[in-house]
Amino acid sequence: MPAGPFTDAAPDAVSDAASGALPDAEAALLARYAAGDAAAARDLTGRLVPRLLSVATRMLGGDRAEAEDVAQETMLRLWRAAPGWSPAGGEGGARVSTWAYRVAVNLCTDRLRRRGLRGPPLEAVPEPEDGRPGALAGLVEAERLAALDRALAALPERQRQAVVLRHIEGLSNPEIAGILEVGVEAVESLTARGKRALALALSGRRGDLGYGDD
Amino acid sequence: MAMTDAERHGMTNDGDPLETAFAAARVAAAAPAPAALVARVEADARRVLAERVPPRTLAGNGARRRAGASAWRALVAALGGWPGIGGLAAASATGLWIGFAAPAGLDVLSGLNPTGSAAQATLEAADIGGGFFAGLEEG
What we know:
The structure holds two protein chains of two kinds.
Chain A: H1 25-34, H2 38-59, H3 64-81, H4 96-115, H5 133-154, H6 157-168, H7 173-180, H8 184-203
Helix pairs in contact in A: 1-2, 2-3, 2-4, 3-4, 4-7, 5-8, 6-8, 7-8
Chain B: H1 5-8, H2 17-29, H3 35-51, H4 58-78, H5 81-110, H6 118-126, H7 134-137
């Protein structure tokens, strides 16, 4: 894979110590895996892969197949990094999840740049087939989600990354700073600008998306 | 600042379309990954573990290295240390040279006595008049 502008070979000195001194349970699992415990690998897979897949799918404009490749590649790099992972954290003190998110985001960036696009447009959500309230509500919700994903795909890459990590993955600003290798103030600025753009994009479709009828 | 649990579950969005959409996205993001992907990732984990060559035991390696080293040290000491080995090497090289280059090399010695062989010249030079026992017979 060609090197992107962000290095993902090893966590650098941008640590997420500011996010708290909580023990890194995933680092403990990784150490057990490095010692030969296959069950620890299953645990780690369950913890990390859904989140990596979610982030990658949104970074890649909804391309699920490519997002799965990114998630698998990220985990492969983690398995290979396991023997060198110290209990105190990876190089620079990064938590396992921070390191994994960073690798996944960088892999997505590399793929987007090879593609020369920000990401493919999402396919339209099908129209509801009947008037049953349950089915309609479900499809309206799906349409809201699809509208959000379309609006995210239209954001500048860094804003999209910051908004997804903050408001969908629920990470703290210091953690996001560690993943994106920027300062905390930069993260706050990126998320604020991203949210404003998303709100504008969604407000124009408020009636179509059923808001106001809730 | 970290997201609160209420924010995480979209309970404080007050109908804000963006917050409602974020809440829906968070629910979708929490869904388990496809089983096929999970299987591939776990297979990669097992393969990486299997690819690691187990290190040789430190005791085995060290014992073999230590045995070899002490035998070599004993040999060097028996030959008089490194100076002794150097002298042995020089003498061996000289002998080898003499053995291969003898006819041309020994002509240097024959030049000392043009009338006879090198051995005869040596004996005549060492002659002490009557032989070794001559002096002992004089009483």
